[in-house]
Automatic annotation (TrEMBL):
The active site is at C341. The modification N6-(pyridoxal phosphate)lysine is found at K68. Belongs to the Orn/Lys/Arg decarboxylase class-II family. Keywords: Lyase, Pyridoxal phosphate. This is Ornithine decarboxylase. The keyword Lyase applies. One of its GO terms (molecular function) is ornithine decarboxylase activity.
């Protein structure tokens, strides 16, 4: 088996096969000895690489990392050092970035439905840009009209996305005009429009359509003599490769770049990528707790499962490449199950696996987005700990300079 985007298979000195390179095998084994399975390896070099790749694919677009898929301090500080901005949705996320020293003017708050307390918590931090998609929500900002500025979120349905984020949130174009009109009456500033085409959107035309419609609304608002809109937020949804269908982000974004070029020159564009930045950055490592033969298949029970790091199988329709760390010889039809006593706790059925021993390590790839973030401790199985790799810049010139007193 080969996993796209990773080091090609190598055979180690004993002729074993693996999807890892020998350095990675040594690293995983030493971490397993030191910390014990299960764990997740978070590689900040990959976070950095993903951010730079999307930045290059969307020149001039300000990227706000959406914390939701992996709200981890190391991700925030890595991205902050890269110059990223942040997309927050809850007070917990506000506190996380605030405690890491993220300047508030690098953040926006994009939950379309908020309590008064949520608005005040964000404003106290200094985050001033919020999202609304209806008049009821707009009116919550009457007391804050001197400080807060709003984006109006539009809905563009996308039933093919992994998660169609325009079903639960977003208004129609007519709804957007109504909100902009009412905001002008109330003296509330509308800075622009936003949308989210749906997570893991593999069809760039969804963005193109949404950008074109927003372009029409931005022009329509100006034609109606309403206050001019200055921002378009094209949301998240940018896809990653979970299988051999490799996504090339630069060519994926080409039609998006063309659509953005049609916007009035004064419109600033921002995006809220989540999954794209973190999905490839985490690798899960679990170990075999026990095994049984059932109906001609071997069931391997791991110390991580559906209620833990693999929760995205349920919540995010996830299909993560999983395999033994290394193996020799034949493969057999097998089942990979999680540790809890619940029958739903199965990671993969009809998977071809080598003969495994208790204690052998199983590696899951592309496990950074919507995995540990939605994990539980059901049945008292503790969540896999996250082990951070490459958190600091390799470039020595950027390392803090220590001056010794003579
Ligand atoms: C979840 C979410 C994101 C991130 O979406 P991805 O598909 O992970 O890129 C961005 N913006 C908002 C408002 C979200 O709810």
């Amino acid at each position: 088996m080969s996993v796209s985007g990773f080091a090609p298979s190598v055979a180690d000195a004993f002729g074993a096969q693996t999807t890892s390179n020998t350095t990675e095998i040594e690293l995983i084994e030493s971490l397993a000895r030191r910390y014990g399975a299960p764990f997740l390896m978070l590689d900040c070099d990959i976070v950095r690489h993903q951010y730079q790749a999307l930045k290059a694919a969307l020149p001039g677009v300000e990227l706000h990392f959406a914390l939701k898929p992996l709200p981890h301090p190391a991700v925030v500080s890595t991205l902050l050092a890269e110059g990223a901005c942040f997309d927050l949705a809850t007070t917990g996320e506000v506190e996380l970035v605030r405690d890491l020293g993220v300047p508030a003017d690098k953040t926006i708050h994009t939950h379309p439905i908020k309590r008064d307390r949520d608005i005040r918590d964000a404003l106290e931090y200094g985050c001033k840009v919020f999202v609304v998609d209806n008049i009821n929500e707009l009116e919550k900002f009457i007391p804050y009209r001197d400080e807060a500025e709003l984006l109006v979120r539009l809905s563009f349905r996308n039933p093919n996305a992994v998660s169609d984020l325009s079903k639960k949130f977003g208004c129609s174009e007519e709804g957007a005009y109504a909100i902009v009109t009412r905001a002008a009456e109330l003296g509330i500033t509308i800075r622009g429009l936003s949308f989210h085409v749906g997570s893991q959107t593999l069809d760039a035309d969804k963005y193109v359509h949404a950008i074109n419609r927003c372009n029409a609304v931005i022009r329509g608002v100006a034609e109606r003599g309403l206050p001019v809109l200055k921002v378009l937020d094209i949301g998240g949804g940018f896809p990653v490769s979970y299988d051999d269908n490799t996504v090339d982000i630069d060519s994926f974004c080409a039609p998006i770049r063309s659509a953005l070029a049609e916007l009035p020159a004064a419109v600033a564009v921002i995006a809220e990528p989540g999954r794209f930045i973190v999905a490839p950055a985490m690798t899960s490592v679990a170990s075999v707790m026990g095994q049984a033969e059932r109906d001609g298949e071997t069931w391997y029970y791991l110390d991580d499962g559906i209620y833990g790091s693999f929760s995205g199988i349920l919540f995010d329709h996830g299909h993560y490449p999983v395999d033994a760390l290394y193996w020799q010889g034949e493969r057999f039809p097998s089942v990979l199950a999680g540790p809890t006593c619940d029958s739903i706790d199965v990671i993969a059925e009809k998977i071809m696996l080598p003969k495994l021993n208790n204690g052998d390590l199983i590696v899951g790839r592309m496990m950074g987005a919507y995995t540990s973030a939605t994990a539980t401790e059901f049945n008292f199985f503790r969540k896999a700990q996250i082990i951070v790799l490459n958190e600091f810049m390799h470039d020595a010139s950027l390392a803090p300079v220590v001056t010794l007193e003579v």
